[in-house]
Amino acid sequence: MRFEGSHLGVKPDDRLECGICWWVYDPEQGDDVRGIPPGTSFADLPDDWCCPGCDAPKHKFMVTE
């Protein structure tokens, strides 16, 4: 894992994990809770998107390896 805030400059297929509740955003699956369709990269999520598990903001996510 990288440091908190490592969501900056992620690749389109990178999976990111919430540093608070460990929920994983997988671009292949999208986010049913927030209405994000499959195929949406983390970088393309709206600025106000937050973790569906705990409402953490995007900067709390870390790229998984």
UniProtKB/TrEMBL annotation:
Co-factor requirement: Fe(3+)
Keywords on record: Electron transport, Iron, Metal-binding, Transport
Superkingdom assignment: Bacteria
Matches recorded under InterPro entries: Rubredoxin-like_dom, Rubredoxin_dom, Rubredoxin_ET, Rubredoxin_Fe_BS
Gene3D superfamilies assigned: 2.20.28.10
Domain Rubredoxin-like: 13-64
Coiled-coil ranges from the UniProt annotation: none
Pfam families membership: Rubredoxin
Signal peptide: none
PANTHER family cross-referenced by the UniProt entry: RUBREDOXIN, RUBREDOXIN-1-RELATED
Family: Belongs to the rubredoxin family.
Name the record gives this protein: Rubredoxin
